[in-house]
Amino acid sequence: MNVAVCEYGAGNVRSVVAAFGRLGAAATVTSSPADVADADLAVLPGVGSAASAMAGLRERGLETALRDRVAAGQPTLGICLGLQLALEESEEDGGVAGLGILPGRAFRLREGRVPRIGWAPVEPSGEAFYFAHAYAVETPAATARSEGVVAIAEHGSFVGVQFHPEKSAAAGARFLERCLSRA
Amino acid sequence: MPLPRLIPCLDVAAGRVVKGVRFQELRDVGDPVELGASYSEAGADELVYLDVAATIEGRSSLPDLVARIADRLAIPFTVGGGVRSVSDAEALLEAGADKISVNSAALERPALVSELASRLGSQAVVVAVDAADGAVRSRAGSTPTGRRAVDWAREAEERGAGEILLTSIDADGTRDGYDLELTAAVCEAVSLPVIASGGAGSAVHVADALAVAQAALLASILHENPARLETLRSELRNLGVALRDAA
């Protein structure tokens, strides 16, 4: 199993690599479109701002590589900002066009304390995962929610999660294990 | 709202967990990675690593230690102590920290908070506020700043902070309970998550803090003992506090 974790100047790639390592999967950090194209599972992590993250993907040629692999049915996982970037657009930074891998958009959270930080149950399973986000997504591809917020969206071979499985202890490890078993 | 969080705090110096009074006579009480992993297994929701020697010695926290923690732990952690610039913070995040905490440097130059938020995202920026009698003090509580805690918390939010770590210097070390008045005032002033710190002596104190704030920092109450965290969690559950199921 060969897992490629996209490095594009937006986020905590080390924790993602370590989480796969604990599951016995060889994950490598890469900025190379060829590595992303060839991987059994590609992971698009990400924290920070949508505009600079999209610019980072484009500069490295990863934008096309990610779209192509999802179109070809290759398993791809987006985490947090990685989910938001996969949509058609985000209202962050005055409006940013996303990868358009799945329909929908990211919007700023307006209720409760923002950023929304902490562990929250994800329905229908009820398991708690760790969230840290100021933007959330609306998409017809949603398959699980947490306190009204889209927690998981699935579209073809793409799975996007708003929470951080790599930071969600045993529940997160079980989720990543399932991603590996499908890849 | 997400579930209330319990956040053990580990003081570190020169790569070890230390215990001491006012940064004097620091005593080595263990390895930060092992103790952090034990807390994680005992149900900690997050961890805070505070480099207590950093500000005093004028250097930043150690990215090497952060990398070892990130490789081992599958829960979020914040690193504080001596972060004075965006590049200090970036080095820690690249090494695997989820958040950095700033205190004295942000008080000296508030624009640092804006710079950190714009480069790293708000969710990675914790502004630590140490207050005595409602007034902010810097440099480990030694220096008055002339600011009110509520005003500084509000400014930090406007500048893009993601969380406020609020320590009551009056309550700290007393084990008489968190400063609920100060905590409520800051929670009222901002719409960010607030982490209450200082004064925990019992489960009831922690439950009271979690009724006001979104998270409680746990330091001396744990005595660097992960088994104490497990008993504290069951005591809190018995008091009706909804904690995550850590299984």
Task: Characterise this structure.
The complex is a heterodimer of chains A (about 180) and B (about 250). Chain A is of the alpha/beta class and about 180 residues long. Chain A contains 6 helices and 13 strands. In chain A, a hairpin with a 2-residue loop joins strand 12 and strand 13. With about 250 residues, chain B is α/β, with parallel strands linked by helices. In chain B, about 35% of the residues lie in helices and about 25% in strands. The longest helix of chain B is centred in the C-terminal third of the chain and has 13 residues. Chain B starts with a strand and ends in a 9-residue tail after the last helix. Chains A and B meet through helix 1, strand 8, strand 9 and helix 6 of A and helix 3 and helix 6 of B.
Architecture blueprint of SSEs:
The complex is a heterodimer of chains A (183) and B (247).
Chain A: E1 2-6, H1 13-22, E2 26-30, H2 33-38, E3 41-44, H3 50-59, H4 62-71, E4 76-79, H5 81-86, E5 89-90, E6 96-97, E7 105-108, E8 116-122, E9 127-133, E10 135-138, E11 142-146, E12 149-155, E13 158-161, H6 169-182
Parallel strand pairs in A: 1-2, 1-3, 3-4, 4-13, 5-7
Antiparallel strand pairs in A: 5-6, 7-10, 8-9, 11-12, 12-13
Chain B: E1 5-13, E2 16-21, E3 24-30, H1 32-41, E4 47-51, H2 54-57, H3 63-72, E5 77-80, H4 86-94, E6 99-102, H5 104-108, H6 111-120, E7 125-132, E8 135-138, E9 143-148, H7 149-158, E10 163-168, H8 180-189, E11 194-197, H9 203-210, E12 215-218, H10 226-238
Parallel strand pairs in B: 1-4, 1-12, 4-5, 5-6, 6-7, 7-10, 10-11, 11-12
Antiparallel strand pairs in B: 1-2, 2-3, 7-8, 8-9
Helix pairs in contact in B: 1-3, 7-8, 9-10
